[in-house]
Structure formats: structure tokens, C-alpha cells
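Appendix C. Worked example: 4,5-DOPA dioxygenase extradiol
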Amino acid sequence: MRMPALFLSHGAPPLVDDPTWVAQLQTLAADLPRPKAILVASAHWESAPLMLGATGSVPLVYDFGGFAQRYYEVQYRAPGAPALAASVRALMPDHRTVAQTDRGLDHGAYVPLTVMYPDADIPVLQMSLPTLEPDDLLDLGRRLAPLRDEGILIIGSGFTTHGLPFLRDWRPDATAPGWSREFDAWAAEALARGAVDELADFRDRAPGMPYAHPTIEHFAPMFLTLGASQDPAQAPSQPIDGFWMGLAKRSFLVG
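Step 2, the predicted output written as C-alpha cells:
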């Protein structure tokens, strides 16, 4: 059973209170085959060399501030995935160091999973982003692609736009700023053409920069997903679009 690979705009903890976004993620999950396990790389864990998270009991990392107390009480007791961790190590070249840690799932990983797989009964492994360079992440995704044939769902978790310093209206239904709309439209069109080289050059080519991504860690996971497609130039499906607090929540799947 070959699984697709996903890029998810993961949202902040209040994503779970947005009925539209919740419905979109639930529909997306329902349309997928059931994964044997999930491998996720989030914008919120950058670490080199490549790091693998907890494989026993998998805790949560409440890596955010300023939210209501209830968001710090969320639990997601997914099983660990030691066999998946071993498979990831086996797919890496001899010169690449792969380290192990007991780090849990950060909100870029667990927030969408609480909506997509609320029973927390699928083993989950989080891995770090060892680089933010698109070409290197495309290569890493290509190396991980064989996992899809083992029923593993690969997720790159970021945000299609993430210009938090430039937001002025923090309501979920806020009108998207021009830089967010322009960047999102550019990304949607480039994805539809399979224009991976253009996407990789987003810092120089995309309208709305640098406001859409004053730092690039939320766009970078896209390239892990595209690499895992085995044919990055094949246009992905884009089942989720629109905006949340003015940020583009566009998500896509390949394969």
C-alpha cells in the first residue's frame, strides 16, 4: 500500500476551534489510506545532524506562549515507532549522522494529528529539519520516499505564509494582507505546474517576500514532501486552501 506524502499548514493550537479548518483536515484524513505509521518533520524543530524523536512513550512539547491554559493540557498519547526510526536510519547514507533523542511532538506535529487521527492509535515519529535549504530537503525527501511503500505517511508541517510580525488583525477570519494573498497565489500556480525550481527559489522569485516568510523554516518542509513524491514535477493535489488570521493555510499531497 503506497501512501501519499503531505505538506500541511499546521496552524497554532486554536486551529482545533476553527470548524472549517477542522472539517478540511478530517476530510483529508478520511480520504487517505490508513497509515501504518506517521513520520513528521515540523518547522518547529531545526537540528543538525538529523535527529529522531522519542520512540517509546511520545510526550508533547508545548512550544508556544500566550494561549489559554486549556491548550497546555492537551494530550495525544500516540504509540512510538521504533521500527520506523530504524528504517529512517537505514535509508540514510553512511556519511550522514542520525541521532536519537527523547524529544516529544511539538505543536507543528500534534495539533493537526489531533484532528486527523484523534484516537492517537497510529505510531508517530518526529524528525528534525537538519537544514532549511530546498535542494537538501528535496534530497532527504527522495531518500525517505521508499517508506511510502511500507504504509508510512510522510508529513512536512509548516505554513504557506507565516509573516507573524506583519499581522495587524489576529482574528481567525481576518482579511489576508496583500503579501499573503500574492505569495499564496504564486505558490498555488507554481505547484500546479510542478515548478519545483521556481518554488526552491522563492526567496528571490515570490511576490510578498520577505513579508510572507521573514524566516523560512515554515516554507522549508514543503521540499521534504516534494522530494518524497519521487516525481517532484508532478502537480500535487491541493485539497486545503484559504486563510486563517490572514496566513495562507494551503496544504497539498503528492503521490
